[in-house]
């Protein structure tokens, strides 16, 4: 866990994931198309079938324009100026499949690309780009029954305010009388409660799994995971007590009182990505009477010794990308299985500390919950 805090929690999905391999890249295929996350009628940014991204920025009086795709960008993609005052450039290599944050640096200032939609990450609204994935069908918008994502404001006496959460209810919830299990799903550092539904497409993943008959429906709740603001690199100063109170003593009772939930630990799960995994691990070990299903997505691991004098949960899910530290996930899963725990370890091939890893992780984890 210490190594994880030193490395993985330095950044969440802002990690760029551009594959700047030293080997010579193949010739770029000129089949670029606008990213699916572009603003209406905006032609750029574009992506091609190989995973390259191409950017075009209008800045006629600028002296320098770069596109920065996270910490892996080696200074970013430098754009070249054309006679019409526009700047254009293509990434040095293909990017990992899935969603990526980015921003534009013009003469040293940081801005968002007006051509694309914005997503909250790295403690600010960032531009977003989607590199089409071979397995993107599982989170695609399809002609299937859809659940509802609604914003709620719940009272939080401990923080002397009302706090926000987003609640996914499955298709048919509004017209039915059934009660449902609940997954409390946490974002990473620098993100907020919008991340899982926007960047992660958790609602579409759930809709498609339910339509395919692969899971029994359940509710998902996402809330902001910070009660004391911590800057990047300062996670050692994060204290769980405040957020644990918000989640366990304020949000969960509110959800149980206002939604048709099965208010038992056997029907309640907690999972999170990156920093949200750290929160999940700490809270589930502190409050084993509240949750019975645990998920750490690029968020560290459990060991059997963590459960000394504590009840075993019904299920543990551990995951990360193959470009992270997959051996740690494999070893932890093996150790827990040897100690008699019901656990799965999952590795997302070809991805790093990014949302494609976590989309795939939710796909793998959801069918195992509440069985």
UniProtKB/TrEMBL annotation:
Q: Kindly give the Gene3D superfamilies that the UniProt entry links to this protein.
A: alpha/beta hydrolase, Immunoglobulins
Which UniProt keywords are given for this protein, alphabetically ordered? Answer: Signal
Q: Which SUPFAM superfamilies match?
A: alpha/beta-Hydrolases
Which protein is depicted? Answer: Esterase
Show the Pfam families listed in the entry.
Esterase (PF00756)
Provide the leader sequence positions: 1-23
* PANTHER family from the UniProt entry: ENTEROCHELIN ESTERASE-RELATED
InterPro entries referenced in this protein's UniProt entry, alphabetically: AB_hydrolase_fold, Esterase-like, Ig-like_fold, Mycobacterial_A85_antigen
């Amino acid at each position: 866990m210490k190594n994880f805090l030193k490395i993985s929690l330095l950044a969440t999905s802002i990690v760029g994931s551009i594959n700047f391999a030293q080997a010579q890249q193949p010739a770029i295929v000129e089949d670029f198309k606008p990213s699916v996350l572009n603003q209406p009628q905006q032609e750029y940014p574009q992506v091609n079938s190989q995973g390259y991204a191409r950017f075009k920025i209008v800045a006629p009086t600028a002296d320098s324009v770069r596109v920065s795709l996270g910490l892996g960008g080696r200074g970013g993609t430098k754009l070249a100026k054309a006679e019409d005052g526009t700047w254009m450039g293509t990434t040095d290599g293909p990017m990992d499949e899935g969603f990526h944050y980015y921003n534009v640096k013009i003469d040293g200032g940081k801005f968002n690309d007006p051509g694309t939609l914005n997503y909250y990450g790295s403690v600010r609204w960032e531009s977003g780009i989607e590199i089409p994935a071979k397995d993107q069908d599982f989170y695609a918008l399809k002609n299937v029954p859809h659940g509802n994502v609604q914003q709620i404001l719940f009272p939080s006496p401990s923080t002397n305010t009302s706090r926000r959460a987003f609640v996914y209810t499955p298709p048919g919830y509004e017209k039915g009388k059934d009660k449902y299990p609940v997954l409390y799903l946490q974002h990473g550092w620098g993100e907020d409660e919008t991340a899982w539904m926007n960047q992660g497409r958790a609602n579409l993943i759930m809709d498609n799994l339910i339509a395919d008959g692969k899971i029994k429906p359940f509710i998902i709740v996402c809330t902001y995971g910070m009660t004391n603001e911590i800057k990047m690199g300062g996670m050692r100063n994060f204290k769980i007590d405040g957020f644990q109170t918000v989640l366990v003593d304020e949000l969960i009772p509110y959800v149980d009182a206002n939604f048709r939930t099965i208010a038992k630990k056997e029907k309640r799960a907690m999972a999170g990505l990156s920093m949200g995994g750290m929160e999940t691990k700490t809270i589930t070990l502190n409050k084993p009477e509240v949750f019975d299903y645990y998920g750490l997505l690029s968020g560290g691991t459990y060991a059997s010794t963590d459960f000394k004098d504590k009840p075993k949960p019904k299920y543990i899910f551990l995951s990360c990308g193959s470009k992270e530290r997959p051996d740690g996930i494999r070893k932890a899963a093996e150790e827990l299985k040897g100690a008699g725990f019901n656990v799965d370890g999952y590795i997302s091939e070809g991805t790093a500390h990014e949302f494609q890893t976590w989309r795939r992780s939710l796909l793998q984890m959801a069918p195992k919950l509440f069985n």
